Amino acid sequence: MSEIEAIRAQLLADIDAASDAGAIEALRVAALGKAGSITALLKTLGAMTPEDRQAKGPEIHALREAVTAALGARKAAMEAAALDVRLAAETIDMSLPTDTPPRGSIHPVSQVMDELAEIFADMGFAVATGPEIEDDWRNFTALNIPETHPARAMHDTFYFPDTDADGRAMLLRTHTSPVQIRTMMNQEPPIRIIAPGRVYRSDSDATHTPMFHQVEGLVIDRGIHMGHLKWTLETFLKAYFERDDIVLRLRPSYFPFTEPSAEVDVGYKQEKGRRIVGGHGDDDGHAWMELLGSGMVNRRVIANCGLDPDEWQGFAFGVGVDRLAMLKYGMDDLRAFFDGDLRWLSHYGFGALSVPTLSGGISA
Amino acid sequence: MKISVDWLREHLDGEYSVADVVATLNRIGHEVEGVENPAEKLAGFRVARVLTAERHPQADKLQVLTVDTGDGGAPLTVVCGAPNARAGLIGVLGLPGAVVPVNGMELKVAAVRGVESNGMMCSTRELELGDDHDGIIELPADAPVGMAFAEYHGADDPVIDISITPNRQDCMGVRGIARDLAAAGLGTLKPLDVPRIAGEGAPTIEIRTDDVEGCPAFYGRTISGITNGTAPEWMRRRLEAVGQRSISALVDISNYVMFDLGRPSHIYDRAKLTGALVARRARDGETVSALNGKEYALADTMTVLADDSGVHDIAGIMGGEDSGCSAATTDVLVEIAYFTPERIALTGQALALTSDARSRFERGVDPAFLDDATAIVTAHILAICGGTPSAVVRAGTPPTDAKTVDYDPSLAASLGGIAIPADRQQAILGALGFSVTEQGDRWHVAVPSWRRDVDGAPDIVEEVTRITGFDAIASVPLPRADGVAKPTATPEQRLERRLRRTAASAGFDEAVTWSFISESDAAPFGGGAWSLANPISEDLKVMRPSLLPGLLSAAQRNQNRGADGIRLFEIGRRYLPDAEYPTLALLMAGDKRARGWQTGKAAPFDAFDAKAAALTLLDAAGAPADRLQVMEAVTGGSIWHPGQSATLRLGPKAVLAEFGALHPSLTRAFDIDGPVMAVQIFLDAIPAKRSSGPVRAAFTPPALQSVRRDFAFLAPTGLTAADLVRAIRGADKANIVDARLFDRFAGQGVPDGQVSLAVEVELQPVEKSFNDAELKAIADKVVAAAAKMGAVLRG
Questions:
Q1: Residue A103 sits at the chain B interface (C-beta within 8 Å)
Q2: What is the rounded CA–CA span in Å between residue B506 and residue B610?
Q3: The domain that contains A150 carries what CATH number?
């Protein structure tokens, strides 16, 4: 074994055996420092003959590189081991819970109103609004509900002792229909609107609350007839319930503001104590449920709004928004809608990002 | 209104089932609310004969009967407590499995004091056929033993409950419904049998109308020598079937004609009237004791019938107790009048008095049916009670002017959506009592006297389409505009939608609370400008001046249910004297953060949570955040914590929002534990963003990096952070792009009355980096601007 080989073997063995960073540094100084053994060998190169240098030079340089590499590798290995030890000491229980940000929710009534707006926008209907504190002319008289109509009696309508500048009695609107009047008086036909909002009746039990939500629909144009009404309601309900098997039954009825008038039933079946809308009401296991009031706008109402009933005709309909929400999403107690119970809201409410869209689905 | 099938057959010939009647009624506009067959309640009860009756060995008051059920089997043993139970009696036996109508109990074979009883002999009360409970029913000797009692009793007569729409007074009698059914092809309407009764001599009392506006016509006759016993069985049965208790022959006759023909009448005991009976206005202060036992104070807007002694009848609504008929009545006055519908309605509303007569008169009875109705009522009285009728006196004239409607038969299609051939339309109208005169394409349609509701062409469309059936309406799409549907939401609607979803995504749950609240809840908010005249309760009385009371009540309920962190918001209106204003209110109570393994104890909300929420929402609303000023609260009184609340404004008058901690006295009034933070955003005050289309302003990110410098100042405590930061921001608008307060300290090392405020200033070089001289110049401007506000750079 040559001297160089002996030094190499010794140094590599020492490096391998080094136990800490200090030992490694000591070995580096001993080998590669100013007075190190390899430094001493390198210094001998200058005194050699070219032939010797040719022969020994590469050998000594190879030794220096091998030791440098071994020192580096050993140092890295020791650091990695130390890191492993440190990381092992940092272990924590990753099943520990995280902070959950509060979720927040949209009330079902708001969500359903957004759904309605989306559906009707596709059919060309805008959303109209009006005041809830109304006068009796717009709530009743203009809608062809004469003074002696039973709905005018105190037990249905909330009245204020106040009158407006024209001496009209002020009240809480009992339906969204005054928005029809306001729209027809302020807008030239053709008109297509829906008018969702709060309405009030002096009525309170398990299925009635003194305040609830209604949506009104109104179309005024030329040549509109009951066939258009039926199509509109079918199209709307199919889109809203996201079912193609919605079947409607129109029954003649009476509302002072429409002529002819129809109540609209929808077929449903009872499943696990819930009404599931869809199917023909006369089919096995099915029945009809009253859902909407509708009809062709009474000529008197059109005339009351300053439009010519010989030129313009159209239809109107009204339906309970809370009721639509209950039928679609399965709530069974109307009173809970107005309680603000966080448990109910988080169960029946909707996420902020669940925006109903036509492409993503109405029931986002 | 209820009708029975047996009663319907009185007017409608033909083969039809209950199901046919129900389906047809629904189809033509008479909604059926229910069908009930009383026979179903009597299932399991049959006619039976008592063979033997022995005393019960264990009980004095009971007997042990053997009963022949008529089915050929051995007699049944039945224990019975009725004193009239005896051998030979034919009565009604309830068999095991039958359900006793009065109490819903199912009969079972059971031992009664040690003797097995196989059924129950029934009283009229147990079968809900009367009030008698002193003994068991005794049937005539010829009653067929073994027959189902329902069949024997004639109870197998289904009763249909119909919701008559308020325009159809003519269908508030069985005959009117029969006419509609016949027009729809179900059976044939029988002719109405109207007897001719001339009568003898003048009535024994003068009648007249002094109020032709309220009572245009008053027909009457007296009948003497009658006996007011009980009405015949067929009449009682029909009345009872539709829920009318039999009272006496005369009352039953009047009711029968009302439910049969929709024609109310009134029968007075002649002996109790003095002087003339006159239809007149009531006098203020007059009172009457009505047949329902209540006393009513009358007003001079009301029509009454009165004699010399006083008021006997609230016209068209309810008779008086004094002149009603009793068993002792021998002479009567029959009143058939026409009252003006509007007046009846207003009187009924004013007195809060409903009756079957009112509901017919206020909808308008047939003004051409007074003579016939007088004859029909008279005929029933003569047949049942005997007596001698006088001639009829006719005071006044009913409004029977003929009504004609111009009609174009193509309207059935162009309005009603059903193309109905002209001859079919004529047939329908004819069956309903209309008559048509053709004049080219136009028809003149004469309206029958009983159809007060029909006065225009659309009414005729309704008649022909409803009888045809709305199932025949084919769906026709609304014309659709070219292209993709256009957006329809108004700016206000977009704002509400945006804020709603921003609030929810910030962790708040949307509530919908009552628009009306109690006066006491409204009081701290300035009280309600609108107070209901007829609230449903004191809790729901005034229109809310703010959304906070509703949310506070909801928070209180949630706290009672154990909720820890309450974050609620509502978007709705607050109702002020001049108008309704769209508002968002938001409330935080309880724990902001629950206790946690990382964070330790639960943390409460503070006023800066409210500020953060307000700013988040205003930013979403598009309010110019950089121009918002924090100023003192405005809604005075005791709503807000005086030191921890503020407003956000655009200028001194435009208040966009209020936020902060609520006043402890307010939260205490709502029974809420702990501090409550709240925000109110006044949506109407947020300026609409000017729409500049979808294109954004041009922008290229600066090539050079921005530079940050920190400054610490000693400022008087009266200087707000916002004022200092705004001043610094404005110190060198060309170079300073942002300034942000990052530290605030008072205490050791800071003189009393002062506070240390540290601000980070961000500088943006544009074309070349700042050199030291430039930086020094900017820093000097910052320090100078701060000094103007009274803040001194810390050494």
A1: yes
A2: 12
A3: 3.30.930.10
What pLDDT, on a 0 to 100 scale, did the predictor assign at position B151? 84
Give burial (CB, 10 Å; 0-12/13-18/19+) of B324: buried
The residue of chain B with its CA nearest to that of A119 is B485
Instruction: Select the residue from B488, B530, B576 to test the A interface by mutation, using most A Cβ atoms within 10 A.
Output: B488
Write the pLDDT tens digit of every residue in B174-206. Answer: 999 999 999 999 999 999 999 999 999 999 999
Distance from CA of B503 to the nearest CA of A (A): 8
CA distance B360 to B362: 6
Q: Is A355 part of a structural domain of the chain?
A: no
For every residue of A220-261, DSSP letters joined together read EESS--HHHHHHHHHHHHHHHHT-S-B-EEEEEEEETTEEEE
Give the total number of structural domains in chain A: 2
* Contacting residues for B270 by C-beta, under 8 A, at least 6 apart: B204, B205, B222, B224, B331, B332, B333
ipTM, two decimals: 0.89
Same domain, A295 and A327: yes
Partner residue facing A219 (CB), from B28, B478, B565 = B478
- How many beta-carbon pairs under 8 angstroms link A with B? 254
Judge whether A230 is closer than 8 Å to chain B, CB to CB.
yes
Q: Tokens 């009663």 map to which residue?
A: B7
Of the residues A89, A123, A155, which one is the last residue of a structural domain? Answer: A89
For chain A of 364 residues, list the mean pLDDT of each consecutive stretch of 10.
Answer: 81 88 89 87 84 84 88 91 93 92 96 96 94 95 84 76 91 95 95 96 84 96 96 96 96 94 95 91 93 96 95 96 95 94 97 94 83
Q: Given A232, A260, A341, which is nearest B466 (Cβ)?
A: A260
A343–chain B Cβ distance below 8 A for any pair:
yes
Determine the structural domain holding residue A254 and report its residue range.
108-348
Kindly state the helix (H) or strand (E) to which residue A51 belongs, with its residue range.
helix A50-89
Decide if B500 and A105 are in contact by the 8 Å CB cutoff: no
- Find, in chain B, the residue whose alpha carbon is nearest to that of A219: B478
Distance, in angstroms, between B464 CA and closest chain A CA?
10
Residue B722, Cα to own-chain centre: how many angstroms? 54
**A203 located within any domain:** yes
Q: What are residue B682's DSSP bridge partners?
A: B583
Beta strand residue intervals within A131-247, DSSP E: 133-135, 159-163, 169-172, 191-200, 211-221
For B211-239, the pLDDT digits (tens) are 999 999 999 999 999 999 999 999 999 99
- Classify each residue of B194-216 as buried b or exposed e, where b means 16 or more C-beta atoms within 10 Å of its C-beta: eeebebeeebebebebbbeebbb
pLDDT tens-digit readout, B505-556: 999 999 999 999 999 999 999 999 999 999 999 999 999 999 999 999 999 9
pLDDT in tens, B45-92: 999 999 998 888 888 888 899 999 888 888 889 998 888 989 888 999
Q: Name the residue among B580, B629, B768, B612 with its Cα closest to residue B679.
A: B612
Best of A238, A296, A342 to disrupt the B interface (most B CBs within 10 Å) is A342
Contact assignment for B531 to A253 by CB distance below 8 Å? no
Smallest CA–CA separation between B109 and chain A, in Å?
A: 35
User: Does A329 contact chain B (CB < 8 Å)?
Assistant: no
Query: Nearest-CA residue of chain A relative to B414?
Result: A225
In a domain, A358, yes or no: no
Calculate how close chain B gets to A283, using CA atoms only, in Å. 15
